[in-house]
From TrEMBL:
Protein name: ABC transporter substrate-binding protein
Periplasmic binding protein domain location: 44-303
PANTHER family noted in UniProt: D-ALLOSE-BINDING PERIPLASMIC PROTEIN-RELATED (PTHR46847), GALACTOFURANOSE-BINDING PROTEIN YTFQ (PTHR46847:SF3)
Superkingdom: Bacteria
Pfam families: Peripla_BP_4 (PF13407)
Entry keyword Phosphoprotein: no
Length: 330
């Protein structure tokens, strides 16, 4: 696996708090006449798509945050296609926006268009997902979760859940979109943890493309070839919810006959957890809007945002899900 260059070299740059967007000096990109009035700023945002409840919440939060801040947001939906995002970014460059932000569909293949943005002196901010590039000067900041850590948290629960078992534990992994940072990293973190015990075996691993329909379809097929599976690890809640439908259609009880561990903690997933159909969820917060606005305002003020900003997140078991659901924002 290629190492992602996301600016982790300087320990002093790792002030990992939820509001950790304070600038680090006056070396930003504000014009010679000083910062623009906030209501004159224009930001272009290229979203992955609307493949999941998480992504819908992410889009809504970002649009609301920019509206509240009085900053114009130009928005495009790539429908999970890299070529659509590249087209949108080039359009933003041509329009001369002040900042470009996007959540990359996949990790690779961005250097050319990001060099175009750099040549146009338009700062780029990565949200939610990283890019795999040798040149980290192509973006100003990366705001998002630590996907490897999410995978490790899922693996930790599995290890603890089966710590007293001497029997083999057969696992199906529902992967996210092939080549996407969260799919790669969540698989890596999970494998790192369970790999220390030979009783854990991933008997099948296939992409469900982060969608509920994909999770259902893949689980239906994999259950036929692996009827004695013990656990499903889904890279997001939507695929886990699809897996629940497939398990129930097979006459089995999700959460009992086949345990499920997932990532996201959107409302539907949390409800399934509260109902006992999912056993454990690792949170991945989509509420990045206010932090993204902070980064844009820092850039406008001539400040340098932290290169890597990690969102604060937690985990949920059944009782914790029940307690959190009434106030859940997404």
């Amino acid at each position: 696996m290629k190492k992602k260059f996301i600016g982790l070299a300087a320990a002093g740059a790792m002030l990992l708090t939820l509001a950790g967007c304070a600038g680090g000096g006056d070396t930003g990109t504000a014009g010679s006449d000083g910062p623009k009035p906030v209501d004159q700023l224009v930001v272009g945002f290229a979203q992955v798509g609307a493949e999941s409840g998480w992504r819908t919440a992410n889009t809504t939060d970002i649009q609301s945050a920019f509206k509240d801040a009085g900053i114009e947001l130009k928005f495009s939906d790539a429908q999970q296609k890299q070529e659509n995002q590249i087209k949108a970014i080039r359009s933003y460059i041509q329009q001369g926006v002040d900042v470009i932000a996007f959540s990359p569909v996949v990790e690779t293949g961005w250097d050319a268009v990001l060099n175009e943005a750099k040549a146009a002196n338009i700062p780029v901010v990565l949200t939610d997902r990283a890019v795999d590039s040798q040149d980290d000067s192509l973006y100003v900041s990366f705001l998002g979760s630590d996907f490897v850590e999410e995978g490790k948290k899922a693996g930790d629960w599995v290890v603890e859940e089966y710590k007293d078992s001497t029997d083999p534990v057969k696992i199906i992994q529902l992967e996210g979109t092939t080549g996407a940072a969260p799919a790669i990293d969540r698989a890596e973190g999970f494998a790192d943890v369970i790999g220390g015990d030979d009783k854990f075996e991933i008997v099948a691993s296939q992409t469900g493309d982060f969608t509920r329909a994909g999770g259902k379809q893949v689980t239906e097929a994999l259950l036929k070839s692996n009827p004695d599976v013990d656990l499903i690890y889904a890279h997001n809640d939507d695929m886990a919810l699809g897996a629940i439908e497939a398990i129930e259609a097979a006459g089995l009880k999700p959460g009992e006959d086949i345990k499920i561990v997932s990532v996201d903690a959107v409302k539907d997933g949390m409800q399934a957890l509260a109902d006992g159909k999912i056993n454990f969820i690792v949170e991945c917060s989509p509420l990045l809007g206010k932090q993204l606005v902070d980064i844009v305002e820092q850039i406008n003020d001539g400040e340098t945002p932290e290169k890597r900003i990690i969102t604060e997140e937690t985990t949920f078991d059944q009782e914790q899900a029940k307690a959190a659901l009434p106030d859940r924002q997404y």
